[in-house]
Amino acid sequence: MLDIQELKNVMVQAASEAGKIILHYFNGNFEVKNKDGINNLVTEVDHHSEDVIIKIIKETYPTHTIISEEVGELIQASDYQWLIDPIDGTVNFAHSIPICCVSIGLLYKGDLILGTVFNPMMNELYFAEKGKGATLNGKPIFVSKKSDFRKACLVTGFPYAWPDSYEHPIKVFERFILEGLPIRRLGSAALDLCWVACGRFDGFWEYNLSSWDVAAGYLIVQEAGGRITNFEGERYNVFEKQTLATNGLIHEAMLSVISHKKKPTIQE
Question: Do residues 27 and 134 both lie within one domain?
Answer without folding.
Answer: yes
